[in-house]
Structure formats: C-alpha cells, structure tokens
Amino acid sequence: xxxxxxxxxxxxxxxxxxxxxxxxxxxxxxxxxxxxxxxxxxxxxxxxxxxxxxxxxxxxxxxxxxxxxxxxxxxxxxxxxxxxxxxxxxxxxxxxxxxxxxxxxxxxxxxxxxxxxxxxxxxxxxxxxxxxxxxxxxxxxxxxxxxxxxxxxxxxxxxxxxxxxxxxxxxxxxxxxxxxxxxxxxxxxxxxxxxxxxxxxxxxxxxxxxxxxxx
Length: 215
Prior knowledge:
This protein is an all-alpha fold. It has nine helices and no strands.
C-alpha cells in the first residue's frame, strides 16, 4: 500500500501546481470576477469532471503505453519539465503572470460555463504532465495494485485542487482588490510558486524514468 511520503509528496506537488497561475486558475478567476461566484463554481464543476477523466485514464493504465515505448516516456518527461520551467519563468520574470487581473468576459449561461471549465482542464498541459509524468513517480509497483495506488494519489490531488480552487473562486474579488493594494504580496506569491515549479522540473528530470508497466 502507499507510503506516507508518497501521499505527502503528491499533496505538495498538487498544492504547488494549483497555486500557480495556469489555464484553470486564470479561467476560474476571470469568471468569478466578471460574472460572479456562482459562475465560478459552475465552471469549477466542469474542471472537476475534467480531473475525473484524467484520473480514470490513469487508473486504467494509461501509462502502460509509455512502458512499451520508453523513448516516448523520456520525451514526455523532458517536455513536461520544459513546460514547468516555462511556467516558472512566467511567474518569476518581471511583470509576470497575474491571474487576478483578468480581461473582461461576456456573461455565459451555466451550460457553457461548465463545458468551458471541462475543456480548459482537459486541454491543460499542466494537468497532463501531472498525471502522465509526475504522478507515476510516487507509485511503487512493489507495494500492491498500481491502479489502486493511482486512484488514491489522484483522489488526493483532486481533493486539494478542488478545495483550493473553490476558495479562490469564492474570494477572487477580494483577493484581486487586496493584491492591487499590496503588490508585494503578489511578487512574493509569484516568487514562491516560480521556485516550486522550477524544483518540480528538476525533480522530474532527475528521477529515473519509471513508466508503469501494468495496472
């Protein structure tokens, strides 16, 4: 069964990623600020379903494909690390990404909000990297069912991501006003998240390639 360090490791990775401005955060914040909390929560429901799709694929043995083609797995790891470093640069560079100053959007009905949240998450490279390249690093084939381990670790990631995103949705307006008054807080958040992303990229590159063979 899973070890405590594995669960904690996934929790730290999930927290670092969800707190870093990316497609999901930018979409949820923009909808919450421009259309209200209800719109943000409906959008978050679509994001949640997207997480479920990724988790189902991972549990079904999606990574087994990369066990059969090690070169493809190595290429994915390098691409994933490069994407994480890109996000780190976006956070650390002068005038970096600020999710709490989004452009205005026209109001959309709940159904469209849900679908857009779902599609945004499914097409989010950060989540794809998490499930295909990062999550398998915490699964140990010698400790029981790979599918069960993947399910538990994915559930931990989803619980953290949805909890943090729900707080962001509910407080987006207040956070945007507070960060506008205290730009140092924004710079500190960007520095912290950029550092975390860079560390994740280094870990991903340093880890021995270990795609999972079978669920």
